[in-house]
Amino acid sequence: MKKKKFRFQWGAFLLLIFYGGLFFLLFTRMVTLQATGEAEGQALAAKAAAKYGKESAITANRGKIYDRNGHTIAEDTLSYRLIAVVNESATVNAEKPRHVVDAKKTAKVLAEYIAMDEEAIYKQLTKLKADGKKPYQVEFGSAGRGINHEIMSKIKDENLPGVLFVSDLKRYYPNGIFASHLIGFAIKEDNKDGSVTTTGKMGLEYTYDKELTGENGKVKYQTDAFSYLLPKSEKMVTPAKNGDDIFLTIDKTIQSFLEEAMTKVEQEYNPESMTAVIADPKTGKILAMSQRPTFNPDTREGKNMKWLNEVIEETIEPGSTMKTFTLASAIDTGTWTPNEFYKSGSYTILDRTIRDHNQYGWDWISYLEGFQRSSNTAMANLLKKIGDDNFLEYLDRFGFGKKTGIDLPNEATGTILSQYPIQRVTTTYGQGSTVTPIQLIQAMTAIANDGKMMQPYVIDRIVDSSTGKTIQNHEPVEKGQPVSADTAKQVREILASTLTSKYGTAKDFVLEEYEVAGKTGTAQIPKADGTYAWGANQFLYSFLGMAPVDDPQLIMYVSITKPKLKNELGSVPVSKIFKPVMQNSLKHLNINPEDVQHVDHGTVQNYTGKNAQAVQVELANDGLQPVIIGAGGEIIDQYPKDKQKLVKGSTVFLKTAGAITLPDFTNWSLRNVLVFKSMSGLQIEVVGEGFAASQSVSAGTVISDNAPIVVKLKTPAESFVKDVEASSEGEIEQTEDE
Questions:
Q1: Pairing verdict, β 625-629 and 651-656
Q2: What is 711-738 written as a DSSP string?
Q3: What is the 3-class SS of 531-585, one letter each residue?
Q4: In the chain, what are the helix, strand and coil shares in percent, each to the nearest 5?
Q5: Using CA atoms, how far apart are residues 253 and 278, in angstroms rounded to an integer?
Q6: Residue 48: closest CA among 222, 232, 228
Q7: Where in the numbering of this chain does the PASTA domain appear (predicted)?
């Protein structure tokens, strides 16, 4: 047999070496990856998480702003964001395009609905990325955000290919023009990273932006290569934390009265500007604040408007309203002699002469008559009695020339001029020196509150919106006692005489059902060159008043700059704001005229644990109105709590166990209805504002289920006849100050 000769196969050998080497490299790579978890210096787990791990944001709501009764003033609400898909890759079926096909037509139609012109929209629809390629989609900035449902529906009805909407949140102000310079506004802003944040730009929205802004949450989850959620994949949720809620001291109903009255006067007299503020003198709480011109915070639209809160940030020469505090200084120093006579008309100090507003005066008159007539020379003569240093000390006690400390930014201080004798004289009647309206309000709390001056404030409390826990709670702050209680009472009586005396300048401010005390003011307005404007319609008219006189529940300041008068006194347009707002606000607060005429009080004790029927008789004998919530027996809760002095006729709620019998809500204030709802736990739905006019379930019904009870309210404007305008006399239209 022939033996076969071995032949070495180089081809096979080379293949073996090649594939063997590849296998070795692959094996080495696998071992390395298993051991280090890295490839080319990058963590594979991280790359996988980046590719298959998804993260979705959970948007936090901005905190709400409420009035003191829980009515919403500002909140986030559902809106829509406009998006246009511009890349052809979005379209699968050419017959049903899912991208913008005709950019010119789309731009023309969208320009009819959003605040962006056609050319700018077209430019946005046709723009390219840095690499020259079309983006997948585009947006339209602020013009394409905050779109309401009505506009969204209209755009959808246009059937524009590629135009889409995404649900969004928008800051919403449901009351329109409503304390706009106080509340301010917040808008959405684009961040550098592409995210969008709602940011406060003015007012409380700006000042408390940190508290109102929430923290967005997120959801992390795993998907496959096609972005489908992997089964049994762990989902990590970080919940969003909504912003804190802010409760104001503002009363929505009183604020609404003020806004309505100011709008009417603005339309009738077309003044250069107006300011008004209302406060509770017992606490310093600001119940309403507004100015004109103003704006709608939803649209930020307003004409000839200053973007500042004039009540806080702008100083004025107050005019004769300042005489209130000159009078208080004289009474408190024992130098007020109401029946002593002085020569009115003019007063000369060194080389300067001041005059009364009618230039020639009223010959020899008493100081009381001089105050009632708003005589400038009466104040100058009083200054000699008080003493310059004493007078300046009292102005400091009243808080003039320094900030009140109100919880709002950019407060102005004003300037009390005192370097020269003539400056001290003119300051007595409110010319030369400057103050802010909020300083006048703070100082007036001392007159209304038996000498105790209260610091004004607008934030009642800040609450964690998630837990309901109060984070900040603002309490009334007493700023000292500039004058004695007896002095304050005398000042109130003299201020009331400016409305009732035949010489009084404030007759236009008389109310039919409440006694008012206050002081008018007609101040010259300084010009840029240091001189003062003079002539018809060139003054700042104002009134600083309170009611009821014996136990003031509200103080109010109103000023109107350069109204277009119609052969009438400057006090007339001011009174058209003060009178209806003060009257309706007192009624809203359940301050009944018959109660305040005698100013009788009843005292509430802590009745917890006592028998409700016995306490009911005790309270009724004391002139109070007890309401038992429950079947009677042992009292387990009450409102008001603890020891308090109440005006007779006030309501006291006593909570007991057992079935609840529905009372007659007729003429109950909104506050009392809300107190009853809270303490009873009944499903009471309140409709309207003001005083209760009707109820869906009859009084005397024993409530046995959770069916809703509807209580309808009517405003005082609807329920009461408007005031008859008092005749105006004794005030001169064109005056130097008065």
A1: parallel
A2: EEEE-HHHHSPPPPPPP--S--SS-S--
A3: CECCCCCCEEEEEEEEECCCCCCEEEEEEEECCCCCCCCCHHHHHHHHHHHHHHH
A4: 30, 25, 45
A5: 12
A6: 222
A7: 598-658
Asked if 735 and 505 count as a contact pair (C-beta separation under 8 A), the reply is no
Determine the Cα–Cα distance for residues 557 and 473; give it in Å rounded to an integer.
Answer: 27
* Residue 590 Cα to chain centre, angstroms: 23
In the prediction, which pLDDT does 235 show?
A: 55
Phi, psi of 44 (to 5 degrees): -65, -35
C-alpha distances in Å from residue 672, one per residue of 288, 659, 663: 20, 20, 12
Which pLDDT does position 128 carry in this prediction? 86
320 is an active site residue: yes
Tell me: the pLDDT tens digits for 393-449? 999 999 999 999 999 989 999 999 999 999 999 999 999 999 999 999 999 999 999
pLDDT of residue 597: 46
| Per-residue tokens: 568 | 């009438």
Q: What contacts 204, CB < 8 A, 6 or more positions away?
A: 65, 182, 183, 184, 246, 248, 408, 458, 459
**Which pLDDT score is estimated for 150?**
86
> Who's near 283: CB < 8 A, 6+ residues apart?
454, 476
- Give the integer Cα–Cα distance in Å for 521 and 435: 13
Domains and CATH numbers, the chain: 56-248 (3.90.1310.10), 252-589 (3.40.710.10), 596-719 (no CATH)
Helix (H, G, I), strand (E, B) or coil at 288: strand
**Catalytic residue selected from 256, 273, 320, 585:** 320
Residue 231: both structure tokens together: 């089964």
pLDDT at 577: 97
Using CA atoms, how far residue 349 sits from 317, 340, 387, 641, in Å, is 21, 21, 14, 57
φ and ψ at residue 455, rounded to 5 degrees: -75, 130
Residue 399: how many other CB atoms lie within 10 Å: 24
**What's the rounded Cα separation, in Å, for the pair 661 and 664?**
10
SS3 call for 342: strand
What's the pLDDT at 219? 63
- Nearest Cα neighbor of 710 from 680, 677, 678 is 677
Q: Give the full edge-to-edge strand order of the sheet including 53-58.
A: 53-58, 217-222, 236-238
Residue 695 structure tokens: 């109820």
Point out the residues of the chain with pLDDT beneath 50: 1, 37, 41-53, 225-226, 228-229, 596-599, 719-738
The DSSP output letter for 401 is T
State both tokens at 542.
Answer: 């104002």
- Residues with Cβ within 8 Å of 450's Cβ and at least 6 positions away in sequence, in order, are 485, 488, 489
- Give the per-residue pLDDT at 693: 87
Work out the burial of residue 183: count CB atoms within 10 Å of its CB; fewer than 13 is exposed, 13-18 middle, 19 or more buried: buried
Q: Which two tokens stand for residue 640?
A: 């008001």
pLDDT of residue 722: 37
Q: Are 332 and 395 in contact (CB under 8 A)?
A: no
Read out DSSP for 252-263? HHHHHHHHHHHH
Please state, as a whole number, how many other Cβ atoms lie within 10 Å of the Cβ of residue 189: 12
Separation CA 188–CA 140 (nearest Å): 13
Position 54 scores a pLDDT of 52
- At how many degrees (to 10) do helices 376-386 and 421-428 cross? 120
Separation between Cα atoms, residue 347 and residue 429, nearest integer Å:
13
Please give the C-alpha separations between residue 490 and each of 295, 338, 497, 607, in angstroms, as whole numbers. Answer: 41, 11, 11, 37
**Shortest CA distance to 310 belongs to which of 436, 434, 444, 445?**
436
Angle 323-332/376-386 helices, nearest 10 degrees?
Answer: 30
